[in-house]
TrEMBL record:
Pfam families: LysR_substrate. GO terms for molecular function: DNA binding; DNA-binding transcription factor activity. This is LysR substrate-binding domain-containing protein. Keywords: DNA-binding, Transcription, Transcription regulation. Residues 3-139 form the LysR substrate-binding domain. PANTHER family: HTH-TYPE TRANSCRIPTIONAL REGULATOR ARGP, TRANSCRIPTIONAL REGULATOR. Gene3D superfamilies: 3.40.190.290.
Length: 149
């Protein structure tokens, strides 16, 4: 955008996860093209392409080739996956503790999805907003994969 600076922050790593019960029901033999066309996914919103892109890349399944539930709120989305409504993509940072406690399992451990994140800010900012931007960029780069320190 004109008048804005864009700072790359790094990448947020997402994992394809489900509850252990969901995996036992749908993916007992792993993720296959036939099964992912039938197993329901949990998708954040209609513009969310993480699951669609993942299925197209790894299984050749098109956008309209799998069932899904839309849950457009972060915590309810995560809970829908934990409760077994479907499989979905969760940020590694958000779901790490749940995976360690056995609440979710990684369905595709060798197939993470990295999403590049950027900070957009006005070129001319108040000193307070400039400090906020600088702090946010520094902290995000330390936390995210591939961030520049």
């Amino acid at each position: 955008m004109r008048g804005c600076d864009v700072e790359p922050l790094g990448a947020m790593r997402y994992r394809c996860v489900a509850s252990p019960q969901f995996r036992a029901r749908w993916f007992v033999k792993g993720m296959t093209r036939a099964v992912v066309r039938q197993a329901p996914a949990v998708v954040f919103a209609r513009k969310d392409r993480l699951q669609s892109d993942f299925l197209l890349k790894h299984f050749g399944v098109p956008e309209d080739g799998f069932p899904r539930h839309y849950v457009p709120a972060s915590d309810p989305y995560m809970q829908a996956i934990v409760l077994g409504l479907g499989w979905g993509m969760l940020p590694e940072l958000q779901m790490r503790d749940m995976r360690e406690r056995g609440m979710v399992v990684d369905l595709a451990p060798t197939r993470p999805v990295d999403v590049a994140l950027y900070w957009h800010a006005w070129k001319v900012q108040s000193p307070r907003m400039e400090r906020l931007s600088r702090t946010l960029v520094t902290q995000a780069r330390q936390l995210l994969k591939g961030g520049r320190a």
